[in-house]
């Protein structure tokens, strides 16, 4: 089991990451074209009003002081206000985050759910037709862009077969899961392709281990050998991949949400980029970056709890 | 020994065992027609140079050779051919009737499961004990193989064990199902002399208590002399000589055995190659025709280079004067000459 000390140390290791994220999101807005204020202003602003606004936003202070100001605001939960819709960024993000989280969660479940049995089938029938077919399938999955997979699924299952809605988010949990199934499958398929490849290699590796032979020599049931001895060891190396994958998963979510008209952060990001809604862009980038590093933390902790050899 | 197979429960009769590994360079025959017999409760030593096929032989008995290895022949266990069993039936033999101790203690235990868990799963598979009973039995087993503070050690992972402790843990796991036959591949190599002695005594005690038979692979002829009833000598994938330990050590009938005994450490402990075997064993792909030992053999003649000698009963020789030495077999055209040459080396001292 994990010790509290290990978890604490691992959480503290996130501090530099978080500082880095803050610096990047702070600099980001300053790199964007134009003064943040010109986007609000328009033609009818006087110099005095600009100066006043600059002072109000702290823009007349040295850069470092501005950064500290920014950090203080973020830490107290103030991400600013949307310029376009004039509501706090935080409430906007908070409203759009749940669909994306549900979508990503379902995508991970589908991805892992597809990858584990396929990786086993492929690794156990190494070099035979099943293996070649599964690996070819994974190759196709990897080379197809996410939006293309989405469009294909949409055409087949929504337009033709009418099994699933063409888009949107529903009301109530059951309806939402139903609405999100196709988009989650879209993301899950490309995730499965990535995970399958790594997991297959790991399973092939572990199947060659002496302790698997010893488990056989002990007369254990095949199920126990495959799940307890093989999968557990193979997952340890594959989990290391799942953390970074969450980053690309969120990237995929941006596209998928557009294809399936899901009111998630992906769509919000695209909307706010079009509307030059800088505070929203900044707030979103910040929340997504934090989400990704939390995903890293969680996969690391799971990995550590599976592998007694890592210091903990 | 290619006689009638012993079909009593607990008896093992191996006939024509061949294990071949496919390789890009062609098939490699690691085990080349091995015959072995083991009476119930008997302890058989299996000796031979590195690469002679001892480990592959042991693994083949329970079909633990993985692809591209192919096993042919018969492994009659109480009369049932293990090589013909369905997977489910074979699984009930593995661990419960025939247990295995692998040669590599460092890699044979699963690094991410506690030692206790790895004992527990064997007990779960082969006994009807409940969780508490299995835990108590796990403590007993670790204690039996001489691991101190066994109750706390159950929660340790293999990397927290030394090599010798891992080897003992592996023996504990093998004994969990109270097997009738133990296939032990160099079970004492990583252990210091005291522990080695303790493990051998344990094996002898289990033989006495459970009637457990043992095939003991070892490089140490002292261990054979101390604990085995009979010994089989392997060379290049074949059994070249078998017989009761004392008789075989006193009067080897195969030139390779003679060399092996001659290179045993003397009473003083220093290793003196009295009758050293020159050269190295042939590689799997380059076995010489005829007797595989002929390039290294001082007794070799044209017959040896032409045709491989079969493993056949040899007449009792000088050593039988006054006592019976049954079951002696050798695969040597000139076994009489080898016997007549005698050995300058003493019989190995028990450790
Ligand atoms: N999986 C495999 N594939 C190909 N060749 C193998 C395989 N396993 C063993 N061999 C070969 O079979 C031969 C016999 O090996 P084995 O391990 O049985 O020797 P051994 O008598 O146990 O030696 P040692 O005393 O060193 O343990 C060796 O030449 C080895 O390289
Ligand atoms: S058969 Fe010939 S070569 Fe082989 S051991 Fe006997 S004497 Fe030597
Ligand atoms: Mg070996």
UniProtKB/TrEMBL annotation, chain B:
<dbReference type="GO" id="GO:0055085">
    <property type="term" value="P:transmembrane transport"/>
</dbReference>
<dbReference type="GO" id="GO:0016887">
    <property type="term" value="F:ATP hydrolysis activity"/>
</dbReference>
<keyword id="KW-0067">ATP-binding</keyword>
<protein>
    <submittedName>
        <fullName>ABC transporter ATP-binding protein</fullName>
    </submittedName>
</protein>
<dbReference type="InterPro" id="IPR017871">
    <property type="entry name" value="ABC_transporter-like_CS"/>
</dbReference>
<dbReference type="InterPro" id="IPR003439">
    <property type="entry name" value="ABC_transporter-like_ATP-bd"/>
</dbReference>
<dbReference type="InterPro" id="IPR027417">
    <property type="entry name" value="P-loop_NTPase"/>
</dbReference>
<comment type="similarity">
    <text>Belongs to the ABC transporter superfamily.</text>
</comment>
<dbReference type="InterPro" id="IPR003593">
    <property type="entry name" value="AAA+_ATPase"/>
</dbReference>
<keyword id="KW-0472">Membrane</keyword>
<dbReference type="GO" id="GO:0005886">
    <property type="term" value="C:plasma membrane"/>
</dbReference>
<dbReference type="InterPro" id="IPR050388">
    <property type="entry name" value="ABC_Ni/Peptide_Import"/>
</dbReference>
<dbReference type="InterPro" id="IPR013563">
    <property type="entry name" value="Oligopep_ABC_C"/>
</dbReference>
<dbReference type="GO" id="GO:0015833">
    <property type="term" value="P:peptide transport"/>
</dbReference>
<dbReference type="Pfam" id="PF00005">
    <property type="entry name" value="ABC_tran"/>
</dbReference>
<dbReference type="GO" id="GO:0005524">
    <property type="term" value="F:ATP binding"/>
</dbReference>
<dbReference type="Pfam" id="PF08352">
    <property type="entry name" value="oligo_HPY"/>
</dbReference>
<keyword id="KW-1003">Cell membrane</keyword>
<keyword id="KW-0813">Transport</keyword>
<keyword id="KW-0547">Nucleotide-binding</keyword>
<feature type="domain" description="ABC transporter">
    <location>
        <begin position="14"/>
        <end position="261"/>
    </location>
</feature>
């Amino acid at each position: 089991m994990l010790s509290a000390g290990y978890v604490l140390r691992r959480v503290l290791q996130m501090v530099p990451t978080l500082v880095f994220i803050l610096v990047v999101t702070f600099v980001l807005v300053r790199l964007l074209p134009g003064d943040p204020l010109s986007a609000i202003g328009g033609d009818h602003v006087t110099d005095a009003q600009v100066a006043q606004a600059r002072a109000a936003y702290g823009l007349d202070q040295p850069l470092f002081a501005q950064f500290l100001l920014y950090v203080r605001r973020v830490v107290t939960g103030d991400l600013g206000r949307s310029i376009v819709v004039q509501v706090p960024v935080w409430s906007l993000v908070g409203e759009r985050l749940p669909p994306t989280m549900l979508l990503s969660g379902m995508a991970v479940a589908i991805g892992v759910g597809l990858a584990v049995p396929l990786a086993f089938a492929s690794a156990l029938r190494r070099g035979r037709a099943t293996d070649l077919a599964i690996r070819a399938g994974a190759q196709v999955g990897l080379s197809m862009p996410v939006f293309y997979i989405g469009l294909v699924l949409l055409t087949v299952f929504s337009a033709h077969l009418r099994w699933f809605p063409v888009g949107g988010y529903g009301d109530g949990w059951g309806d939402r899961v139903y609405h999100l199934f196709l988009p989650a499958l879209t993301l899950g398929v490309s995730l499965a392709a990535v995970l399958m490849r790594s997991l297959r290699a790991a399973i092939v590796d572990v199947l060659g281990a002496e302790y698997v032979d010893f488990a056989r020599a002990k007369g254990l049931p095949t199920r126990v050998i495959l799940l307890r001895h093989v999968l557990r060891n193979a997952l340890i190396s594959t989990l290391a991949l799942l953390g970074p994958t969450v980053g690309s998963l969120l990237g995929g979510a941006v596209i998928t949400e557009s294809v399936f008209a899901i009111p998630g952060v992906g769509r919000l990001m695209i909307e706010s980029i079009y509307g030059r809604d800088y505070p929203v862009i900044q707030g979103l980038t910040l929340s997504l970056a934090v989400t990704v590093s939390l995903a890293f933390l969680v996969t690391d902790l799971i990995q550590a709890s599976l592998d007694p050899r890592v210091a903990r | 020994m290619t006689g009638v197979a012993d079909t009593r429960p607990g008896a093992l009769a191996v006939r024509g065992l061949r294990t071949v590994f496919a390789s890009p360079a062609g098939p490699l025959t690691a085990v080349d027609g091995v015959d072995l017999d083991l009476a119930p409760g008997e302890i058989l030593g299996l000796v031979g140079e590195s690469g002679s096929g001892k480990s592959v032989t042991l693994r083949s008995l329970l079909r633990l050779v993985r692809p591209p290895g192919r096993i042919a022949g018969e492994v009659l266990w109480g009369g049932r051919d293990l090589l013909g069993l369905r997977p489910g039936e074979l699984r009930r033999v593995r661990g419960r009737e025939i247990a295995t101790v692998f040669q590599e203690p460092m890699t044979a235990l699963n690094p991410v499961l506690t030692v206790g868990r790895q004992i527990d799963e064997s007990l779960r598979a082969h006994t009807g004990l409940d969780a508490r009973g299995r835990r108590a039995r796990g403590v007993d087993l670790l204690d039996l193989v001489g691991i101190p503070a066994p109750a706390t050690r159950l929660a340790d992972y293999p990397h927290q064990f030394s090599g010798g402790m891992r080897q003992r843990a592996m023996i504990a796991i093998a004994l969990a199902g109270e097997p009738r036959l133990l296939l032990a591949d160099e079970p004492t190599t990583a252990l210091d002399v005291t522990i080695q002695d303790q493990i051998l005594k344990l094996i002898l005690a289990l033989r006495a208590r459970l009637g457990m038979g043992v095939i003991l692979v070892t490089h140490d002829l002292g261990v054979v002399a101390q604990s085995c009833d009979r010994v089989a000598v392997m060379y290049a994938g074949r059994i070249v000589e078998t017989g009761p330990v004392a008789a075989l050590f006193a009067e080897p009938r195969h030139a390779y055995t003679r060399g092996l005994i001659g290179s045993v450490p003397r009473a003083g402990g220093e290793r003196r190659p009295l009758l050293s075997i020159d050269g190295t064993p042939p590689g799997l792909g380059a076995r010489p025709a005829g007797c595989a030992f002929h390039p290294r053999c001082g007794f070799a003649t044209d017959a040896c280079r032409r045709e491989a000698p079969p493993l056949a009963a040899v007449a009792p020789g000088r050593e039988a004067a006054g006592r019976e030495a049954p079951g002696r077999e050798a695969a040597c055209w000139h076994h009489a000459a080898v016997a007549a040459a005698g050995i300058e080396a003493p019989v190995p001292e028990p450790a």
